[in-house]
Amino acid sequence: MMTLAPVHPDDYPTILTWLTAPGRLVQSRHAGAVPTLERQYQYVASLPMGARYLRIHDDGQFVGVATLMPTWYGFDIGLLIGTPNQGTGTRALRAIMDEHQTVRITVGCAASHGAMRRVCEKAGLAPLDSEPIVRYGREGR
Ligand SMILES: CC(C)(COP(=O)(O)OP(=O)(O)OC[C@H]1O[C@@H](n2cnc3c(N)ncnc32)[C@H](O)[C@@H]1OP(=O)(O)O)[C@@H](O)C(=O)NCCC(=O)NCCS
Fold this sequence. Notes:
Elements: E1 2-6, H1 12-19, H2 37-46, E2 52-58, E3 61-70, E4 74-81, H3 88-99, E5 104-106, H4 114-122
Parallel strand pairs: 4-5
Antiparallel strand pairs: 1-2, 2-3, 3-4
The structure holds coenzyme A.
Coenzyme A binds near residues 81 and 118.
């Protein structure tokens, strides 16, 4: 059974191993930023009021995290799963949807992110737009 609870700082090292696994960040919205423990703390500190940063348990095992970013209509959801392609992301998204049935939810993912798009489809979400999002940025000195 999937359960959700707030992320604890003790979870950060595990989250980092997932973020830095080869190929994991290529299509996620974190692309370009090298994940470190310091950035993990910065990320959590930067979350706006009303955001939920959740650890995902599957039958008691810590399997991933989700960020629920508050929007004017509800939440925009981001997922990070430790071991991909075992159906975990889909079941986690469904669990989040079940816990937040009364608000509108969205998932922002790159048009090229086949795995996340597939997760959304399997969880029963409909595509809202089809334009690829191209983000620009640079690192701080
Ligand atoms: C994206 C992510 C959350 C998916 O979680 P997951 O547990 O692997 O998801 P599931 O196992 O439920 O489903 C993955 C589906 O994508 C498919 N898939 C995997 N790689 C794919 C690719 N490159 N192109 C298209 N489909 C792909 C899988 O075959 C599977 O579909 P299927 O069940 O029809 O075979 C996970 O890979 C992850 O944490 N990635 C790193 C962080 C990230 O990119 N998060 C998304 C930003 S919000």
